[in-house]
Amino acid sequence: MPSTAPYSKIFPAMILLVVFCNALPGRALANEDMETLQLYYEGKDLVVSASRTPKPLSQVAENITIVTAADIEALNAHTVGEVLATVTGVQMDQRRGPGNSANLMIQGAPFWHVLVLIDGVPLNNLSDSFPDLGVIPVQFVERIEIIKGPASSSWGSALGGVINIITKSPAEERRLGGALSASVGEQMTNDYRGELTGTAGNVGYYLAGTNLSADARHFSNRADETGLYGKLRWPLANQDSLLFTIGYNEGVRREGELPSVDFLEKIEHRYLFSSLTLTSTITDQLKADLALRAATRHLENAHSAAFGNLPVTFVSDEASYGGSAKLSWRQELQTLVAGADFDHGNLDQQTKPALGTLDKLGLFANDTISVGPVTVTPGVRYDNSSHFGDFLSSSLGVTYSLTEKTLFRTMAARGFSNPTLINGPNLEKVWSVQAGFESTELDFCRLKTTLFQSETSDILSSLNSPIRERQRRRGVEVELQTVPLFHLSLATGLALLDVTDLESGQLVEGAPCYTVDTTVRYAWDGYRANLSGHYIRWNPYPQFNGRYSAMIWDLALGANIAKIGGTELELFATVHNLFSGSQNQFEFYENLRRWVEGGLKVRF
After folding, report:
1. Which residue from 167, 291, 177, 174 is spatially nearest to 230, judged by alpha carbons?
2. pTM of the predicted protein model
3. d(CA 134, CA 115)
4. How many Å apart are CA 518 and CA 505, to the nearest integer?
5. Which residue has the higher pLDDT, 40 or 364?
6. What domains are there in the chain, each with its CATH number?
7. What is the pLDDT of residues 13-36, one digit of tens each?
8. Residue 73 vs residues 426, 434, 556: alpha-carbon distances, Å
9. 325 close to 284: Cβ distance less than 8 angstroms
10. DSSP H helical ranges for 305-373
């Protein structure tokens, strides 16, 4: 059992929030003050991840968090992994500095239980289902929708949740626009970005390119990543459209060092993904989507010495393609969605030549029925795989508007996770329930609370062990967000977790115990400042000598310094790990101490 002393990290964040809230004057808030908080209840605030069709958040029973492009810009973030580290209920074991691996958990569910998508293309690889979020640049990201809890009735293998990365759309109102930015900093860090967007004739386009490099020799952290992304949209007759996306990322990084056993890790990768989607409006109520997708991945992972049961050199090549067909029928009180997914993948590893192929077929249907203040969302999905057989997922959610400003939600779901191709055919299964509410009854803040419990069977104790066990995950999330006061706002999130092995009754090693996320944000007249703090306490692996002594604070600054015609100039800077704290789960993945970077952005 971990010591209870670290729980003291919770109280400074909570005290800061209480003091801030009490400082707010007792006044009727202006409409603009409440606009951000009340978006939850606005029909225009639509999400697509819950049922795979746009609908208001007030009809969503899942515990969902949305990260916008504005949130990402406020962080001065480099990669998606950095952004997710600030989300309540998401645990990121970020390794080293920018461009390096980021191990993901949602509510204690490990990364192979979480489905990560970008433009509908899964980022999880075939060998161990790892989504490499540390190399996905934020430049082309419009929003990220995070479902915390099983989402198998819509998406299939998503026992622990879904992270849906939605990319930027072509600008419709102009022929040419875009942005250029460059930043340099300590640890030999450079980040260069560019994007172009607009509509030429009737074709909309969005193009982006990035290069990120870092060389923190003292921490044996080196990374050099190059990424390209493109999106084209053609309008067709009768409001139909065709959308094409393509992304490419390649790089090399060095991370992880344990001098006592001469261990050093070097990773080279190449990722290519693409999608083609036809959207057709059949009638005013009926819409059809047909999507094709493809991806290739090459990975070379080399170690300077054997470490445990890892090979010294590991080479993996995989190729996958698939598609989806979906019908959405929308009426005033009901939205019905039905469709099918198909995927084929081939994996070849140097250590296991011609390791195998994986074929998957999924059929899904869900409904959203709204009657007065109540919305009911049943869902069901059938999956069949050449590797594990078939499985039936189901879910039932209810939302109830207690008042105009308070929403109650509850959900029960049955889900599964695909076994990895290197770990046998047994299927991991989960039953989960959750309940919570969201309210703006207090004029100065928004409160969101979610209780959850799940029981998972046949779960892998590790990706390198055939031992399977039953685990129970339960906990609570609490989030508070204030309205701006003198252009200053505050948000705090707390997640308490209990991840227990039901066979032994012991806490699971390597699982999180609690996380604290706090953000103080200032925005006024072209100036912005974002102070974000993150603390995560793990139930430690004793042999890996993790450190949990500090909350990690980052300060991101920005200022619009000039506007000439339609061109804007912005200076920005970030102080990472402001107080040079130490927080890492493994001693050979030690986090960077304080380092500073800054740069210039031009928008046109």
Report:
1. 167
2. 0.90
3. 15
4. 32
5. 364
6. 5-603 (2.40.170.20)
7. 433 443 343 333 333 333 333 343
8. 42, 32, 9
9. no
10. none
